[in-house]
Amino acid sequence: MTPRSFLLTPELADYVRASTEAPDEVIADLIAETAAMAERGEAPGTMQIAAEQGALMQLLTTALGARTAIEIGTFTGFSALCIARGLPADGSLLCLDISEEWTAVGRRYWERAGVADRIELRLGPALETLRSLPAVETYDLAFVDADKTGYAAYVEELHPRLNPNGVVLLDNTLRDGRVLDPQDESDRALAELNAALAADPRWETALLPLADGLTLLRKR
Ligand SMILES: C[S@@+](CC[C@H](N)C(=O)[O-])C[C@H]1O[C@@H](n2cnc3c(N)ncnc32)[C@H](O)[C@@H]1O
């Protein structure tokens, strides 16, 4: 399989996957269905998070004891499935996306995995939905994986809605290495955000070189 991290050789990427909790049948089918959609030109091929990132996100959700979570950028539902599986049975995940077509795929897999009752999906521009939510401490965990130029605003809106010690995960923060030499608006947005977050006293920040870069922010 092609490595999702530009930092790994194909052999090391295989080794990382082989040394990580293996995807079960539901996840394997979701990855295969999303890949088939990409082959038919129905979805971009690189949108889904890497399998090893999914494993980490499920582990983190459980280890943090998260009960309430929010996701910005759901696509065909893989990251949401991992977060939902890490929540307790009475936990909740709010998913924000604009695509009815792609998220409909996710809904089927959430049903199949038995976690659909933990997930609420709201369709519409994420910033509008986020701003419509009460600005009170609500969430233990947030995952941001939508339009890259929107990340800075998402982080600002998430801050008051996150519980103290709450964690935000930001995807694609290395932009395949282009944060060092931004080539477009999305690269520039992430390079500027990475610098701003590292200097922001409201957050404890760690950028992991996993997949395409995963930043962890803890609300102080
Ligand atoms: C990279 S994909 C998310 C992948 C997903 N986390 C997964 O694991 O499969 C980005 C998603 O963000 C959504 N998106 C893009 N711009 C958005 C916006 N302004 N508001 C809400 N969703 C948006 C797209 O429809 C797409 O489904």
Q: Mean of the pLDDT scores?
A: 97
Q: How much of the polypeptide forms β-strand, as a percent range? A: 15-25%
Total number of domains: 1
Radius of gyration: 16 Å
Largest sheet: 7 strands, mixed
Low-confidence stretches: none
Could you explain the architecture of this structure?
- It is a single chain.
- The chain is of the alpha/beta class and 220 residues long.
- The protein has a single domain, classed as Rossmann fold (3-Layer(aba) Sandwich).
- Helices cover 42% and strands 20% of the residues.
- The protein contains eight helices and seven strands; from the N terminus they run H-H-H-E-H-E-H-E-H-E-H-E-H-E-E.
- Helix 4 runs parallel beside helix 5 and helix 6 runs parallel beside helix 7.
- The radius of gyration is 16 Å and the shape is globular.
- The model has no long low-confidence stretch (mean pLDDT 97).
- Bound molecules: S-adenosylmethionine.
- S-adenosylmethionine (SAM) binds next to helix 4 and strand 2.
- The site of S-adenosylmethionine has 20 residues, from helix 4 and strand 2.
List the helices and strands and how they pair.
Blueprint: H1 10-18, H2 25-39, H3 51-63, E1 68-72, H4 78-86, E2 92-97, H5 100-113, E3 119-123, H6 126-132, E4 139-144, H7 151-161, E5 162-171, H8 185-198, E6 203-208, E7 214-219
Task: Provide the descriptors you would attach to this structure in a database record.
alpha/beta; binds S-adenosylmethionine; 220 residues; Rossmann fold; single chain; seven-stranded mixed beta sheet
Summarize the entry for a quick read.
The chain is of the alpha/beta class. The chain has helices at 10-18, 25-39, 51-63, 78-86, 100-113, 126-132, 151-161, 185-198; strands at residues 68-72, 92-97, 119-123, 139-144, 162-171, 203-208, 214-219. 42% of the residues lie in helices and 20% in strands.
